[in-house]
Amino acid sequence: MASTTTLSWSSSSLFNNLTPNISETSRISEKKTTLMIVAQQKAQKLRKIILKQDIALVGKKGDVKDVKAGYYRNYLHPLGMAQIVTPTLIKEMKMEEERIEAEKQRVKEEAQQLARIFETVGAFKVKRKSGKGKQIFGTVTPQDLVDIIKAQIQRYDIPIHLT
């Protein structure tokens, strides 16, 4: 014959077994309680991320995208391909974009200045000895061109970098 034992899971029965010498007034009530877990909000299925490099079918470096949480957690984050968007990261991105735009503007202005210089210089001749069939002896170096341009425009304050 098998004996069956019934266990009571009330909070007071567990408390009685652990502390037999506590007075009746300090005991937990005999009422059975149920543990209830309540979620405050749904689990996020998408994460807003910024890409650190170009990723096929996702986006280009610097793009802000919504991707599934598991894709970010298991693939993008461990490989260092993406980062979760935060307010500080957004500020850093804006500062980097402004720095890049300023650099582009500076390069564009230098190129326009050089274009104006070359327009004022126009065509110029480089004198070298030549042989049969208009072949020259030696080469024309970038420094030769810089010297000729400087001599024609008589301006030495503009740096001309030819490489």
TrEMBL record:
Which GO molecular function, any one, fits this protein according to its record?
rRNA binding
Q: Where is coiled-coil annotated?
A: 90-117
- What superkingdom heads the lineage? Eukaryota
Instruction: Show the GO cellular component annotation of the record.
Output: ribonucleoprotein complex; ribosome
Q: Name one Pfam family in it.
A: Ribosomal_L9_C
Q: Which Gene3D superfamilies match?
A: Ribosomal protein L9, C-terminal domain, Ribosomal protein L9, N-terminal domain
Classification via InterPro entries: Ribosomal_bL9, Ribosomal_bL9/RNase_H1_N, Ribosomal_bL9_bac/chp, Ribosomal_bL9_C, Ribosomal_bL9_C_sf, Ribosomal_bL9_N, Ribosomal_bL9_N_sf
Nucleotide-binding: present as a keyword of the record? no
Q: Which residues form the Ribosomal protein L9 domain?
A: 59-86
Keywords in UniProt for this one?
Answer: Coiled coil, Ribonucleoprotein, Ribosomal protein, RNA-binding, rRNA-binding
Biological process (GO), any one: translation
Of which family is this protein a member? Belongs to the bacterial ribosomal protein bL9 family.
What protein am I looking at? Large ribosomal subunit protein bL9c
Say which species the protein is native to.
Aquilegia coerulea (Rocky mountain columbine)
